[in-house]
Amino acid sequence: DFLQCVRDCNPFFGGGEGNLPECVMKRGLVRTALKGNYGVMMLDRPPVNAMNLELWEELLEAFEALEADPKVFGVVFASTVEKNVFTAGIDLSELNRETTTEERLVR
């Protein structure tokens, strides 16, 4: 069922790289699962899913893929980190990099 698919994708519930179900597409930092008419997007950037530019870009790519599928009616967000946290928010190191410019961050 749907919740079992989420559990299988999440190391917190004993899932993980070696035993991902067929319903999962693993990107670098985002896992996407389909179950029936719903998609599951799981943030996978331990230890606290800090949101860097790469994660934002992968989220956009995953959203666009799910949006293009006419069978998908909704999306559920989840986290694969083993701590009791969904995300810590923006990765502050992104703001202090030499390559950080307004053009790079605003897309």
Number of helices: 3
Count of extended strands: 4
Question: How would you classify the helix and strand content by structural class?
Answer: alpha+beta
Percentage of residues assigned to helices = 25-40%
| Cα distance spanning the termini | 37 Å
Quick synopsis:
This protein has 107 residues and is an alpha+beta fold. The chain is 26% helix and 20% strand.
Task: Describe it.
The chain has 3 helices and 4 strands; from the N terminus they run H-E-E-E-H-E-H. It has 107 residues and is of the alpha+beta class. Strands 1-2-3-4 form a 4-stranded mixed sheet, with helices on both faces. The protein is globular.
Name the descriptors:
single chain; 107 residues; alpha+beta; 4-stranded mixed beta sheet; 4 strands; 26% helix
Topology:
Layout: H1 2-9, E1 24-26, E2 30-35, E3 38-43, H2 53-68, E4 74-79, H3 102-105
Parallel strand pairs: 3-4
Antiparallel strand pairs: 1-2, 2-3
